[in-house]
Design brief:
The chain is α/β, with parallel strands linked by helices and 271 residues long. It is built from twelve helices and eight strands.
């Protein structure tokens, strides 16, 4: 069964979701509210069932959509969200993919009747390799949880947390996580240059090593610790490097501090 959806905001994340929904046949109809039509991905123009609407015409539709997916930037929320209170009152699920905006934020602006699911996706969703964590607010029923799950599975894996407070840690680990991996590529390449490699070769080696290790981790049945041990010969070069990275003041300590800082910032932004 396809769904009828209203997508508010078609930037990078909204566009990635829309492309995947249409390609996979998730929705029978998708209405799109996007003030900057030139941002709409070009291939989408030919899809049957895609309707480009203004905010007013979206609210005048003959029947409420199954879900209103809000994908505008957080700083635009105050101006955009209140207009969709009538649809929330009519039973449409509100699915937010905006970082830092709590379920309470939406219920304050849409009313206590609003059934809100908060999503924290990450940027690999653009290539169908994202990970999204979902948290459901009061009143969200099993049908709506299934719908939210299906909508976000279109761009990658999905997990749920029952305690919304965990979304700050989720944001710090997976929401911001791609940046940490890109930094790893940069840092590994810089270390290669320091060891005598040319800049181009160092970057190619670093980039492909991370790509390959990620693919291996995705396909392997073993956990990450086992995979690490499998490439670490006692007394070898890898073991020598890991003795530095795994020292008391090494990588784990740095990541503990980094994740704590990001989670604290996420809480501050939400407040």
């Amino acid at each position: 069964m396809g769904y009828r959806l209203l997508l508010v905001g078609c930037g990078k994340m909204g566009g990635a979701l829309l492309s995947s929904w249409l390609a996979r046949g998730v929705a029978d109809r998708v209405d799109v509210v996007e003030p900057s039509w030139d941002r709409l991905p070009e291939p989408l123009a030919g899809y049957a069932g895609l309707y480009l609407l203004s905010g007013a015409s979206a609210l005048e539709s003959e029947a409420p959509p199954d879900a209103v997916v809000i994908a505008v930037k957080p700083q635009m929320m105050d101006a955009v969200v209140p207009a969709y209170a009538p649809l929330a009152n009519d039973g449409s699920m509100i699915l937010s993919v905006a970082a830092g905006k709590t379920i309470g934020y939406f219920r304050q602006r849409l009313g206590d009747v609003a059934r809100v699911v908060r999503a924290m996706p990450n940027t690999p969703a653009a290539v169908g390799k994202g990970i999204t964590v979902l948290a459901a607010g009061p009143g969200v029923d099993e049908r709506q949880r299934t719908l939210a799950d299906r909508l976000m599975q279109a761009v990658g894996a999905v997990e749920w947390v029952e305690d919304e407070a965990l979304m700050d840690a989720v944001t710090a680990v997976s929401g911001s996580g791609p940046a940490y991996v890109f930094l790893l590529i940069e840092t590994l390449a810089a270390a290669g240059r320091s060891a005598g490699l040319t800049p181009d070769l160092a970057m190619r080696l670093a980039r492909q090593t991370v790509i390959g290790a990620g693919a291996l981790a995705e396909q392997a049945t073993e956990d990450a610790e086992t995979l690490r041990r499998n490439v670490t010969s006692p007394g070898g070069t890898t073991a020598e490097a890991l003795s530095v990275l795994m020292a008391d003041a090494g990588l784990q300590s740095l990541f503990d501090r980094a994740i704590a800082a990001a989670a604290a910032r996420s809480r501050a932004l939400a407040e």
